[in-house]
Fold this sequence. Notes:
The structure holds 2 protein chains of 2 kinds.
Chain A (H helix, E strand, L loop, with lengths): L8 E8 L5 H11 L5 H10 L3 H4 L8 E7 L5 E7 L8 H9 L3 E7 L6 H12 L3 E7 L8 H12 L17 H11 L12 E10 L3 E10 L1 E3 L3 E4 L5 E3 L2 E5 L4 E4 L1 E3 L3 E5 L13 E4 L18 E7 L5 H13 L5 E7 L3 E8 L2 H13 L5 E3 L3 E2 L1 E5 L4 E4 L11 E16 L3 H10 L3 E9 L2 E9 H4 L3 H8 L5 E12 L1 E8 L2 E2 L5 E4 L3 H15 L7 E7 L2 E8 L15 H16 L1 E4 L2 E4 L13
Parallel strand pairs in A: 1-3, 1-4, 4-5
Antiparallel strand pairs in A: 2-3, 6-7, 6-15, 7-14, 8-13, 9-10, 9-15, 11-12, 11-14, 16-18, 16-19, 16-20, 17-18, 21-22, 21-23, 23-25, 23-26, 24-25, 27-28, 27-29, 27-30, 30-31, 32-33
Chain B lengths: L1 H15 L1 E9 L18 H17 L7 E10 L7 H14 L1 E12 L6 H9 L4 E7 L3 H7 L5 H14 L4 E7 L6 H12 L5 E6 L7 H6 L12 H17 L3 E4 L2 E3 L6 H7 L3 E5 L4 E4 L2 E5 L3 H5 L5 E6 L2 H12 L6 E2 L2 H6 L3 H7 L3 E4 L2 E4 L1 H5 L1 H6 L3
Parallel strand pairs in B: 1-2, 1-9, 2-3, 3-4, 4-5, 5-6
Antiparallel strand pairs in B: 6-8, 7-8, 10-11, 11-12, 13-15, 14-15
Amino acid sequence: MASMDQSxxxxxxxxxxxxxxxxxxxxRIIEMTGLLTSREMQAQVxxxxxxxxxxxxxxxxxxxxTVYKADNGEEYIFNLIDTPGHVDFNYEVSRSLAACDGAIxxxxxxxxxxxxxxxxxxxxxxxxxxxxxxxxxxxxxxAEPQRVIDEIEDVIGIEAQDAPQISAKTGQNVRDVLEAxxxxxxxxxxxxxxxxKALIFDSVYDSYKGVIVFCRIKEGTVKRGTPVRMMATGxxxxxxxxxxxxxGQFIPCEELSAGMVGYLTASIKNVKDTRVGDTITSRENxxxxxxxxxxxxxxxxxxxxxxxxxxxxxxxxxxxxKLQLNxxxxxxxxxxxxxxxxxxxCGFLGLLHLEIIQERLEREYGLDxxxxxxxxxxxxxxxxxxxxxxxxxxxxxxxxxIEYMEEPMVSAEIMVTTEFIGAIMELCQERRGIYLxxxxxxxxxxxxxxxxxxxxxxxxxxxxxxxxxxGYASFDYDMKGYVQAELVKLDILINKEEVDALSFIxxxxxxxxxxxxxxxxxxxxxxxxxxxxxxxxxVGSKIIARETVKAMRKDVLAKCYGGDITRKKKLLEKQKEGxxxxxxxxxxxxxxxxxxxxxxxxxx
Amino acid sequence: MMMNGSIRDIHESEGRLAELELYxxxxxxxxxxxxxxxLSAPADESVRAGYVEALxxxxxxxxxxxxxxxxxxxxxxxxxxxxxxxxxxxxLLESVYDSFRIDTHAEITIECNPGTLTKDKLSxxxxxxxxxxxxxxQSTDNRELKMLGRIHTYEEFLESFLLARETGFGxxxxxxxxxxxxxxxxxxxxxLKQVLALKPEHISAYSLIIEEGTPFYDRFGPxxxxxxxxxxxxxxxxxxxxxRDMLKAEGYERYEISNYARPGFACRHNLGYWERREYLGLxxxxxxxxxxxxxxxxxxxxxxxxxxxxxxEVQRLTRKEIQEETMFLGLRKTxxxxxxxxxxxxxxxxxxxxxxQGLLLRENGRVRLTDLGIDVSNxxxxxxx
Lengths: 604, 385
């Protein structure tokens, strides 16, 4: 294929607050456009016989290329790049945006601008993207498109009067969006003859091809045989295949040149070598400078993961290794817990990332896991001047050896209707938030700005926010550095035995409250035994809270006659099964989910 | 000599026959009680008549099974079997006698509810060989009876009970229930006292189970509004001990978790379930254990009336399941289970562990639950699965 005419390419993404209809619009766009140009159509028929191509690797559809025949009669190539929709993956989002030339901003015609809308728009504007607003869900009875258009102009300050007003659900006016993509999103620039400069915005591991690198070619051209180097990691390889993204499959092509979005493979064995944000260049004719904005993403949240069945430890290690092939931000290292045995301390970008990994381990790898409470990374300054990055509370040095500790902070933006401002401010206060300011978006809505400790928001902050605003508040945050804080380790003793896997770090001002709630929660979770079980929370040697699981007095089937036997036996079997899923600590059997109790200390 | 020999032959051939317990299910009642989760409902007369015919048909069909077995007990249960006419009950028993060989000492029980018994009905039972009645009383407190949704008062029970004695029944069971919503230890003790004064041969004293799918579950089940009306666990256990102690003082022996009898009056039929003797359940939804297979009749009344006697949930027990059942059923009896070499081997870790916890006792070649073990018997029994 000859070099693509850049003026016929549009590289864009869709940004939106959750549930404003991003995926529906994406589906609609793919549906209403074709996957191939008429020219390619003929070439493709033969190529398609290739089995390997037909295998179609169904992965997270990170990007798709479609062809749109515009009203002006020309065919345009649309590269729609999907951006992850969660704050955990903010860096990935920023790299996806960097691969685009414009962004479609979808705003719900009934709900208007939300916190994520703003965060995403600012991110897009930071990357000098042209933002094309689209008002979605105009079919809703509560839709107020004009109000939302005015809001976009007032709050974001971008022209929105002629924004397409659509229903992605019904397909109404979606063609207006397609035309607007052609007319309002700029074509890519870049010199196909210049030294290669390509941005990695994602990569996936395939067991046949090795790592498949998703990239946007900013300058130059890459094709089979091009010797490439990743400028940040230094990894080198020779390109085996280049291509672009069909719907759910990879379609090889001759070359990728400046302005194009596509993939390349080069027998790379590990996604660690192809980090998101890195710049690919040619070893023969390298570019002078890498693209700006690369950073190595580091885990923010850590927890212990243990196989429920100790014998499955090697299986868990294998599963984590496999997942890591595809996920450079997942980290893990072996650790041992007195309570839980052998397992791994795992690092994640955030709680959602943690949950995704946990679910994949359980579903795809059939592992039954015990997960300990997630925590953030604390910086422990020891009296000898050494600084430890603490990811496992059990490793906290003796208090006598600690000079001071630091915890990570975030700056948070919470958008809320005015009636709930009080409730939300109260919540932020309880979570040790520092009030930075408030801006009114319009008469009824305000944007609250707070600085909050990360460890106060990783668990249930989002749920609490929703429940205290009847679902109306939305929330986004950015990492800010570390600040010194009065932190202590809260230990839990069950039947007088300290359970290391239940320890966590809290601010000293909330230790008492957390300890009390933790004991209450564990009291609910731990089944009654034949003896009384004290549950205590302690800071150092001081007990700060106590609950008691009363001894079981009675557990009898009063009747068991001919017709009852099979049913009652099943009941007992269930009871027995439940016991198997518990962890024996001393004489006490603790259900696996109790180790996540700290996550459920929800206050209201 | 010749004659003696032939008599002995008959005895010997009888002795070689396997024992079989028969259960006949009557799925009808006057009105469903608020706590009841049994397969039973009110039905009009024609349905009941049709059911008796269908049940007779099933009895006849099972004749072959009786060829090498002798029936050592018949239990007509429900529902409220005494809702049937005396003649209908007679017909059912006639069919049983026609199709099965009945041991001369067979225990033949019918479940009755006060309010459905008449002198004629009772005489009819007697004539047909019924030698034991199980009468559902539950409580002598009329307020408690009403709350349970029972159709009778204590006074009506008294009448039925005395009528049964008059008719010549020398083996009567009275069903009682503790841990009722709003019940106190005092009212429970009063129930026990009043029933003991009548000197029944047998008493079943159940602690109320709030079963899912009953009106009681919606009122008193976990998280339901009136759960607080149930006696707390300590009171509930205390009521259980009250029954045990008061009955013991009057010469009743507890032979199973909820069953008490004067010497010689333990219920042969029910012991069969816990000792894993074969039983054949006839009628809608009735369960059977025959030839190492557990199965259940289907529960669709219309199909049954049309002569569909098919089984469901047929389960052939493995060796392991038989051992498990031996333990979890046998330990319900206070005398426990004979300690065979096999059981000692399989449960060589379980036995000492439960003994250390004071839940189990091995002595005189048997293993049994302690009093503490009875209180938490589900916990103990689950260990054998």
